[in-house]
Design brief:
Number of domains: 1
Helix content: 25-40%
CATH architecture: Alpha-Beta Complex
Strand order of the largest sheet: 4-1-5-7-6-8
Shape: globular
Structural class: alpha/beta
CATH superfamily: Spore Coat Polysaccharide Biosynthesis Protein SpsA, Chain A
Strand content: 15-25%
Length: 176
């Protein structure tokens, strides 16, 4: 299993690079990497050249562009895809996603990310189509619907672990 950290966004609403925000002694990027390793990832790759990661080939395509850029560099495998801006994400929250493999993707209800994603020929072909689309047609939820997604009930998870921070107010609220 390969961990994928989506850290290639502009962080325009935050006003500073979200990956470099600190939670305790670590940056969000370092913390997210550690969570993925604890959840069982054998390797972790970063989407986003600013952090010695894989450059985004489709910079205006949001998470789909980042995912498509990363998978172009990877062998077929199971992926755990997480955004860098979830300061309370933990391995226990990722474990059910990691373990549910009936469909090509698994997510929590109402939360397209984080997700487990099966990287194979079908997923690659759909991603190649999606980077040509615009707007909501080029979204993680649309990708999941197209390839097949298992949606897990939120009854199994502390939803604070799924809160992402895109603005300074969200950051302050999540990290009092």
């Amino acid at each position: 299993m390969i961990g994928v950290i989506l850290a290639g966004g502009r962080s325009s609403r935050m006003g500073e690079d979200k990956a470099l925000l600190r939670v305790g002694e670590r940056t969000l990027l370092e913390r997210t990497r550690d969570v993925l390793l604890e959840a069982g990832a054998g390797a972790v790759v970063i989407s986003g050249a600013a952090h010695d990661g894989i450059a985004d080939r489709w910079p205006d395509k949001g998470p789909i562009g980042g995912i498509a850029s990363v998978v172009a560099e990877l062998i077929d495998d199971e992926l755990l895809v997480v955004p860098v801006d979830m300061p309370h994400l933990d391995a226990a929250t990722l474990a059910p996603l990691r373990d549910e493999r009936r469909m090509r993707a698994t997510r929590w209800a109402g939360h397209p990310l984080p997700m487990r994603l099966r990287l194979d020929g079908t997923t690659r072909a759909v991603l190649a189509e999606f980077v040509e689309l615009e707007g909501r047609a080029c979204s993680v939820s649309a990708l999941q619907a197209r390839i097949g997604v298992a949606t897990l009930s939120l009854d199994q998870v502390d939803t604070t672990a799924l809160a992402n921070c895109n603005t300074p107010d969200e950051w302050r609220e999540a990290n009092p």
